[in-house]
Write a structure and sequence with these properties.
315 residues; alpha/beta; seven-stranded parallel sheet; two-stranded parallel ribbon; 13 strands; 40% helix
Length: 315
């Protein structure tokens, strides 16, 4: 049985990955400090995984976990552009120092491959659309800087230490187990919960900014494919993971409103510092390297996410 470690195991992406791995006969080790992750995300599988409440900045703990497994899926991070603008020191500490701890532990325990979460925020406001991996990064926020630094470490650890690293630049991931109630909640769950509570969602700026909204199942598919692809195709590389389409925030909110059956219009607030204007992934590199292809459309993903949040409103 293949043994894997998932960092950030109780977070949004990490917990979805854990459920997939358990359902496909992997032996799963997980670590999460529960700062932004939620124990409830793992409540139905916690007895079938090796879960440690701990921090990836605790090197000895991470090395001990890495010594038990064959692969690492590094999903742990302190998320959110606005949070990073408010507290860049914390973002740097968790996302850069924490990631370095994981990389060193993986190197020292001879992990077969480390697949890690990167971010489309690294592209910044380049006017070129779609974004492809050959473009020069231009991060606009401390969060984006921290995620780009992760990529640089990934490349260096592959070249200098021969650790097989694969970076996945996620584009606006959404879906079940994403916390809609946090002050730093992502747009989609916050819009959905606001409409379900019969209130007006707030769109920052004019709403004509575009994003490549990507349902969580597509991201899980990408992680599994990247972990098993031939070394010569992926080691030390960065790949965009999105749907290859872009949608305005105004259109997104309109679609959520229609799915829920709400009759309340959104309101507009001031643009947020650090937000990029347009984002869309060129996914051809991932498709060619390991057969990545989005399985779930935006509309289908929104319907599933609405159903999930609605079913858990009382929680």
């Amino acid at each position: 049985m293949t043994k894997v470690l998932v960092t950030g195991a109780a977070g949004f992406i990490g917990s979805n990955l854990v459920h997939y791995l358990i359902n496909n006969d992997y032996e799963v080790y997980g670590i999460d400090n529960l700062l932004t992750g939620r124990a409830s995300n793992l409540k139905d599988v916690v007895d079938t995984i090796h879960f440690i409440k701990g921090d990836i900045r605790n090197y000895d703990l991470v090395e001990n976990l890495c010594s038990e497994v064959d692969y690492v899926f590094h999903q742990a991070a302190l998320p959110s552009v606005p949070r990073s603008v408010d507290d860049p020191l914390a973002t740097n500490d968790h996302n850069i120092n924490g990631t370095l701890s994981v990389f060193v532990a993986a190197r020292n325990t001879n992990i077969d491959r480390l697949v890690y979460a990167a971010s489309s925020s690294a592209y910044g406001n380049s006017p070129e659309i779609p974004k492809d991996e050959s473009m020069c990064p231009d991060p606009l926020s401390p969060y984006a800087v921290s995620k780009h630094a992760t990529e640089l470490y990934g490349r260096v650890f592959n070249e200098v230490y021969n650790l097989e690293t694969v970076g996945l630049r996620y584009f606006n991931v959404f879906g079940p187990r994403q916390d809609p109630s946090s002050d730093y909640a992502a747009a989609i769950p916050k819009f959905i919960l606001t409409y379900l509570n019969d209130d007006s969602p707030v769109i920052y700026g004019d709403g004509e900014q575009t994003r490549d909204f990507t349902y969580i199942e597509n991201v899980i598919h990408a992680n599994i494919k990247a972990a098993s692809a031939p070394s010569e195709d992926v080691a030390g590389e960065i790949f965009n993971i999105g749907c290859g389409q872009r949608t305005t925030v105004n259109k997104l909110v309109s679609e959520i409103k229609e799915i829920i059956g709400a009759d309340i219009d959104p309101v507009h607030g001031e643009p947020r510092p650090g937000d990029v204007r347009h984002s869309q992934a060129d996914i051809s590199k991932a498709r060619e390297a390991f057969g990545y292809q989005p399985k779930v459309s935006l509309t289908k993903g929104l319907r599933r996410t609405v159903d999930w949040i609605r079913s858990r409103q009382d929680e």
